[in-house]
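ugh ok fine here u go
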Amino acid sequence: MTGELMTGDRAPQRRRVVGNGDIDIAVFEYGSPDAEPVVLVHGRPDTHHLWDSVIPLLAQRFHVIAYDTRGYGESSAPKKVARYRLEELAADFFAVVDAVSPDRPVHVIAHDWGSVQVWEAVCDPGAEQRIASFTSISGPNLDHLAQWVRARLSSPTPRNVWGPLTQLVSSAYTGFFMVPVLSDLVWRVFGRAWSWRLFLRVVEGIPGERVHVAESLNRDMVSGLKFYRANIIARLTRPRERYTKVPVQLVVNTRDVAVRPAGYDDTGRWAADVVRRDVPFGHWLPFKNPELVAELGAAFVDDHRTR
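structure:
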């Protein structure tokens, strides 16, 4: 279902709803539909508005597609935790790709849990036929991360142990996120636009006016906890061998409070074509430096154009 053309500095030129079974996914398109397609995938607790300052920079040259992942914004939010497994999130991604670019592979730029779920997609057999390139920002492949931890701890030198230890400390918050009822209650009370902007200003120095949020933020704060509950324990305790032929660009934020740079050190073991760009910023790079996101993303797209 395709909506009417919309106007405004950040308004999409076209809005559509893509179905994946009983899930409706809100999709927003910008730029010329004949240009190279670039799909943007957000994480928690964001919606497609995470990319509001990135989109105008990319839409000048590309067909930009952003969407609200399940559980967020204008998309469906199933109640059962099992409905947020990575396999289902990857299926949503491919449903969007099939709808917006059925005859041409897409490029992807993804952040946080958006990157985690796209990692699931790019490791599907034959994904390189549908995905031309993948720029990953602050979101690892959970299977790869677990394999990295096991490899380091199997040879417990101080240097090898240090990396997993620092990641464990950085990820400690996920334990709280996986506690039902209590963590839901905390985010229902404190998960407001003003408090979220204050948090990002204090932790990462991001001015409040750069933090674009949806009206559904409070609900999304709670719904997004299901991503952790559906995937963290399963993937970290039973990691799979997952490989990809899709060209990958890792944008590694060296000041990331959630994902430590060392966790990406073994990515070349599972990705046939990978480049890494370390940048001196925190976790929410699309808010902090949208120009850099657009610059790095566009350059990688240009290196892997389909036409």
